[in-house]
Amino acid sequence: MTDAILYETPADQIARIVLNRPESRNAQDTGLLYALNAAFDRAAQDDAVKVIILAAAGPHFSSGHDLREGGDVASQMTGFDTVGTWCGFGCAGAEGRMAREKEIYLGFSERWRNIPKPTIAQVQGKCIAGGLMLAWPCDLIVAAEDAAFCDNTVGMGVAGVEYFAHPWELGPRKAKELLFTADWLSAVEAKALGMVNHVVPAADLATFTLALAQRIAAKPMFALKLAKEAVNAAEDAQGRVGAMTTAFALHQLAHSHNMQVHGMPVDPTGLQVRPKA
Ligand code: ZN
């Protein structure tokens, strides 16, 4: 088995974390997410690292959550040391599912968003649904020209991914269109909306992102940390946390509804709309 996450130091003061399941388009199973969280913790706690890049091996950034991960919630969480304060991962029904998703989806993404160091997502190819929950928590996003973004979860009977940052990333009107249609958002369009910082040729993606990271790393660490904290505080002053908490509760309601009506957490009648990565 190869490591699902690679940890690289491509230059002085820069850590590069790489999603490394290219054969499954970097689909996120529980193991990958815990390994990713451990890598972010390592970079955050290493005082020699000033900027963190999140990259992905293969043609696509991430196809989202790995829907092929079998077993019930309790078995999916077995063997992992949880990092949040929530509990009840072995509980039946909505209680166990909410615990799992609060830990590894909303919890992890929020945790990474609040790392007190600049983070840059380096995105090529498709970035679908749960993939957004890896790119959006990063401070900056550099996209290859072929990058495309999509949240197809409404078609699966839930109201958007667990880390519901859509209105802040896209503005309310475009957020609704993304959710209602599951249409692809191109890198160029994402840049025009302010979701992406730079669009570069695929061949230049890694070198451009590393150079950007190095320019940032030349600044004083404490000032970078405070600048990030100040911008994040501005988003939070707009009610981001409360709105995302509500969206997460609605997401859990949808899972519970689907379990009651369809016997599974998603609506199977909509699964065919899942785009090919
Ligand atoms: Zn969910």
What this model shows, in words?
With 277 residues, this protein is α/β, with parallel strands linked by helices. It has one domain: 2-enoyl-CoA Hydratase, Chain A, domain 1 (Alpha-Beta Complex), CATH 3.90.226. It contains 10 helices and 9 strands. It has a 6-stranded mixed sheet, sandwiched between helices. Strands 5-7-8 form a 3-stranded mixed sheet. α1 links the parallel β2 and β3. It is globular. The chain binds zinc ion (ZN).
Quick rundown:
The protein is α/β, with parallel strands linked by helices and 277 residues long. It contains 10 helices and 9 strands. It has a single domain, classed as 2-enoyl-CoA Hydratase, Chain A, domain 1 (Alpha-Beta Complex), CATH 3.90.226.10.
Write the layout of secondary structure elements.
Elements: E1 5-11, E2 14-19, H1 30-45, E3 51-56, H2 73-77, H3 93-113, E4 119-123, E5 126-128, H4 132-135, E6 140-144, E7 148-150, H5 166-170, H6 172-181, E8 185-186, H7 187-192, E9 198-200, H8 205-217, H9 221-237, H10 240-262
Parallel strand pairs: 2-3, 3-4, 4-6, 5-7, 6-9
Antiparallel strand pairs: 1-2, 7-8
Bound molecules: zinc ion.
